[in-house]
Amino acid sequence: MKKIIIGLLLVGFAIQSFAQIKTEKLSEVVISATNYKYLNKVGLENASIPVTLLEQKVASFDLKNAEFYRDDFDTYSVDFYIPDGHILAAYDRDGNILHTVEKFKDVALPRAVIESVAKQYPNWIFKKDVYLVSYHDNKGVTKKYKITLENDDKRIRVKTDAEGNFL
Fold this sequence. Notes:
By secondary structure, the chain is an alpha+beta fold. The chain contains four helices and six strands; from the N terminus they run αααβββαβββ.
């Protein structure tokens, strides 16, 4: 019985030692500069997926490796497009975002906006919406929703901020 237990212990230790010998080469780590200040101010937590993806693309854009980059320009304007919207971003020569103008059509509205509009306009149907974002490095960010509502043959347009307050 002792021999069986000792034998099992030796086999157990031997198996562990073989597992530690195996080495694996990992792929290299790629570090990219990201404009975290921009991402923090635009706040991706309530944005719809297409908006979030495009804003992350703008933040991680590597200006210095772009084919049009030259050292003698102070600012660069770059357009980013997707079928649902676009972002016009201005960068300084170091690749930092100075300001953006963003416009997206028919995005998923935040819950606060939906509840606020539905409470104010019961029995109206959300037909279209436009999400506008204006970011400035020094002034911060403004977010607006322009929503078209329908009730039978009537149409109205309302504007709200990101918290659902009417403008």
